[in-house]
Design brief:
Organism: Cyprinodon variegatus
Family: Belongs to the JTB family.
Distance between the termini: 13 Å
Pfam families: JTB
GO biological process, one term: mitotic cytokinesis
Protein name: Protein JTB
Shape: elongated
Radius of gyration: 29 Å
Order of helices and strands: HHEHHEEH
């Protein structure tokens, strides 16, 4: 009588397990290494604290996309690519503050929705294919049992 175990025997061989461990180790090293490198880059602190962090401010100009020149010269443009001009109430200084555009947020939302839909379709197809394969194996098993009678 055959086992009901669904894990193929080939997946449990030491060589396969070693290759899988090596693969996932390299993947995790790559992911965690990238995370550590990005932390090192983002720990740079500005020399002067912007006034809009310390006091109240009034938005003079709504959130707009940075020009190519401003993206390279203004530090506020490098974070999101959008800035708004603000006036601090106590010091009356005008500064630029990084912001998130509604249009950019909408684009990100639809990209996320498309990726989610694509993954849903891919995994649904994989489930259907695997189920057909398992059904075929089960029917072959039943056929062999009937033939052996």
């Amino acid at each position: 009588m055959e086992s009901d175990c669904r894990i193929p025997v080939a997946c449990c061989r030491p060589r396969v397990l070693l290759l899988q461990a090596l693969f996932w180790g390299l993947v995790s090293l790559r992911v965690f290494g990238a995370a550590l490198l990005s932390e090192e880059k983002t720990t740079v602190k500005p020399a002067v604290t912007p006034c809009w962090l310390l006091e109240n401010f009034v938005v003079l100009e709504e959130c707009n996309r940075c020009s190519d020149f401003n993206a390279k010269t203004q530090s506020a443009c490098t974070q999101t690519g959008y800035v708004e001009r603000v006036n601090c109430t106590k010091t009356s200084r005008e500064e630029y503050k990084s912001c998130r555009s509604a249009l950019m947020e909408e684009h990100l939302f639809w990209k996320f929705e498309a990726a989610t839909l694509a993954l849903t379709v891919i995994f649904a197809v994989l489930v259907v294919i695997r189920q057909r394969w398992l059904d075929r194996l089960a029917s072959e098993k039943v056929r062999r049992q009937i033939e052996s009678i």
